[in-house]
Specification:
about 250 residues, alpha/beta, Rossmann fold, Arc Repressor Mutant, subunit A, 2 domains, six-stranded mixed β-sheet, five-stranded antiparallel β-sheet, about 40% helix, globular
């Protein structure tokens, strides 16, 4: 089906999968769980619909007939930070890490349990919805709660990040991760703790944490290869800054 099929929610899922059997089973399950599901078996058609209608999360297969899943993700990330959960039979760690670095929010290896997909979608959507900009948060002269560290500013209410006075585009997951670290300056935070508190998962997947830290460093560090803001605590996790007195929580005018 090169055209889209919509089934009825908890949110709108754009499901990009060329195997009709998998598409049918997944879309039926998500529909019964309360999601609005838009299904496509072609990547370019799915990208087009993502431009023209609201989508909360993408479930993306890598092996598509017209473009690769990697190319789909790259094109999507040029214009949107909507969450993406990749599903693929490819099990190589290198593939998974590369996709996470490119902006995928999660990765499920086929075959997977449908209830696990539901759980991952719920977690991804929770992160996304807690970082949605509302009209009230960006209008007028309201004062916003702000986290400040040197030339990095994170506006909690408007969900904006500025580095050296310039606005920086971050995904919902990246925003939540950065906020979690900035709220604990000078404190080492375990990777398992980040998975539980930022992603909402019980299990630990270091690749997800590492990929998001990598992307954040590229956006907020002067030299991502020699980070001074998000530091690695070897064998444990990560820490924002080095001196708790250099970070502050403030209230700033919009």
């Amino acid at each position: 089906m090169s055209g889209g099929v919509t089934v009825s929610g908890h949110g709108t899922v754009l499901h990009v999968e060329d195997d009709p059997n998998i598409a049918f089973v997944v879309q039926r399950r998500l529909s019964r769980a309360g999601y609005d599901v838009v299904g496509f078996d072609r990547g370019r058609a799915a990208l087009d619909i993502a431009d023209r209608r609201p989508v909360d999360v993408v479930v993306l297969d890598l092996m598509l007939p017209d473009i690769t899943g990697e190319r789909f993700l790259s094109l999507l990330r040029e214009k949107s930070n909507m969450p993406v959960v990749v599903t693929s039979a490819r099990t190589e760690v290198e593939t998974r890490v590369e996709l996470l670095h490119q902006g995928a929010d999660d990765y499920l290896v086929k075959p997977f349990e449908l209830r696990e997909l539901e759980s991952r979608l719920e977690a991804v959507l929770r992160r996304s919805r807690t970082t949605t900009v509302t009209p009230e948060a960006t209008s007028g002269d309201a004062a916003y709660s702000t986290l400040v560290y040197d030339d990095v500013k994170l506006y909690i209410d408007s969900r904006k990040v500025f580095v050296r006075g310039e606005s920086v585009e971050v995904s919902p997951t990246e925003f939540k991760l950065l906020r979690y670290l900035m709220e604990r300056p000078g404190t080492a935070v375990g990777a398992e703790q980040l998975i539980e508190c930022v992603w909402g998962y019980d299990g630990y997947d270091r690749h997800i944490v590492e990929a998001n830290i990598h992307r954040l460093r590229r956006k907020i560090e002067t030299d991502p290869t020699n980070p001074v803001r998000i530091r690695t605590v070897r064998g444990y996790g990560y820490m924002f800054g080095t001196d708790i007195t250099t970070a502050s929580c403030a209230v700033a005018a919009g």
